[in-house]
Amino acid sequence: MIKKISRYSLQQIFIESLEGCNSFQIINGLNPFHLTLNGKECYIYIKNLSPAYFSNPDIWRVQLPRREDFEVIKNSAIDFILLGYDSENKVYTTWHPKWTKQRLNKGESVSFYSRLSLQEEAASTQSIKRLSLNNDGEVIAFPREQLEFILSNLKIFFQDESDYVAIGSKRRPEANEAYKTFADPKNIAAFAKSMANDGNSSATIANYCHILRSLLNDGYITRYRKLFLSYNNLNEYHNVVSEFCSQPEISDRNEQWHNATNTALNAYITFLSKGQSDVLHNHGADDSPQDAIDSPQNQLDPPSQNPGDKDEDSSDIDWEAPYTNSAGKLTKIANPVLIDKLRPFLDCEYVSPVRAYNEIEDFYGDRYSKMNMGDWMQLFKAINWAAPYVQLSHEASTQAEVAKTRSKTELLRVEYPDGRVIQHPKAIDTFTEVIEDNYPDLIHELNILHANVNLVTKERSEQYASAQKEIANGWLVFTNINTRRKREDLLKISEELGLGLKVDLVSIVTGEIITPSNEPSTSARQKIKVTFPDGRVIQPHKVLESLVEVVKYAGPERVRDLNIIVCADNLVLKTPKPRYIKPCKPVGNGWFVNTCSDTPTKYEQIKKISTDLGLDLQVEII
DNA sequence: ATGCGGTAAGTCCATGCGTC
DNA sequence: GACGCATGGACTTACCGCAT
């Protein structure tokens, strides 16, 4: 019932939602992704909103899974914005970025709640709707048209000083534990003892303990607990002591407490921290968020090779020409001088692609004006910092690069005769869009089959329904084929319909455009097409299925009597040897057919079955 | 060594459910 | 009601065995 949108499509919708906003740029990433918007950097992660399946159907949510690549985001000083998307209402939801980041990677899947009614209201009124949730949090729902406004004004909606933040969340046990210790009056006695051991005067001890008891017993700590609960560790509580003491009702009593409120609290926090040091040894004072923010600067000058040395070696070499494609774009960063310049920004704990991009501008000027920031980001990502320098030889041709990247994931790139380029982050989206825009009805007529299903049809396949993506006018596109096969299909369509499309593959790792030189279909899996006398045609994705179908059609016993030998046994048998259990497929009545053979052999077997049993099958390998 | 066909294993994600 | 883990389907990728 809920329309599932792939995470790449969610990113695409996000980009489309910012149409008209010319001051945003995706830096890198495929949902989650890193972008700048109106001069501000942030990380975005978008998920489909779906019902929470509670008894109250109004409760919807997204869940934030634990992911390795979120660690970089979590440790970064840059804001992390989680967006839920309701495709039905074309409405986004979001939550306090600080809260979200705190909960990031805390559990296997952390829930962020919304209400369907809120989403519908935002859609029907085309306005921003806000709701307090029962977990001390708030959700904002807004129409996708308001995306730029919300992202640019998040600070207003979720003011930095506003309510923290997952209080009491089961997923923040450290924070809750620390606060419990802090607010437990029993610890004051031990604190007094410790002060005495340190040689403090009894007057000081009495004053400090009096202050602490008052703070606890009179509810001051409780009232401002959110200040403390925003930290996970007791030793971080020092960060909020000043802010706490500056609250009017506390500063008013400070004089009465001999101006020792601040000192007493810090001493108490130090004592408590020490008491748990064996438990908290991983969370020393160096771990504070402020230090984390500062650290990128600290990382800027790691020992590296002297660029001058490289310059000497490389001055006569053209590091760009072999890696510049026909579109005038660089396909690999190979120049060692540039690599050394980029290293401080990219080969460090907190990478700064924007600063690296500035280096690129300084280095190349206008030379690669056709490349956008995203192109550069892909090249940055492709640098292997363990071995960044390229051995440039005369053989370093595009073809060699193709061979190296052949096994990597590839995207589809389609260029129309007018120069328009379609290249979505997912090949399937490019594939379906191009089909949608190029006469699906005529493509249907071409009768391109996959797994015996027409590539473009209006009939749902029972077996492959989920792989049939609906496009305009109710056409269904069969998508359960690999990227190279998609490319071949588009080439075939282009040829048949005279569209003049240029269809290429793009390496997801290097961003390089790959134009396979081999003939279409030679790299694809072969199929055996069988036409039965009644006109039925099968052409399964797996050749073994053709064999299985034919044996079923012919009758297992009859095929067995033909005594066709495979793997030193009959093609049709009831008790396969252990090593052939997997390739032996059931064909009814307890019989199995041994499919452990190559495609030509299966083809010959089917031909023999047809000939010897007079089945009159048309068999061909395609 | 390399490529190919086939399958197992892994990933992603929406849905379902037990617990507090 | 809120929460997050478990589950299972769809899809992708890694790996294996075999043939060349």
Notes on the protein architecture:
The chain is α+β, with helices and mostly antiparallel strands. The protein has five domains: 151 residues, Trna Endonuclease, Chain: A, domain 1 (3-Layer(aba) Sandwich); 115 residues; 90 residues, no CATH class; 105 residues, no CATH class; 94 residues, no CATH class. It is built from 26 helices and 27 strands. A seven-stranded mixed beta sheet has the order 1-2-3-6-7-10-9. A four-stranded antiparallel beta sheet has the order 12-11-18-19. It has a three-stranded antiparallel beta sheet with strand order 4-5-8. Strand 18 and strand 19 form a beta hairpin. The longest helix is centred in the middle third of the chain and has 16 residues. The two termini are 38 Å apart. About 13% of the residues have low confidence. The protein binds a DNA duplex (20 and 20 nucleotides) through strand 4, strand 5 and strand 8.
Instruction: Return Rg in Å.
Output: 33 Å
* Average pLDDT rating: 68
Q: Estimate the helix proportion, in percent.
A: 25-40%
| Secondary structure category | alpha+beta
Strand content: 15-25%
The major pleated sheet works out as: 7 strands, mixed
Cα shape: elongated
- Which residues sit in consecutive blocks of at least 5 with pLDDT less than 50? 160-172, 276-316, 391-409, 517-525
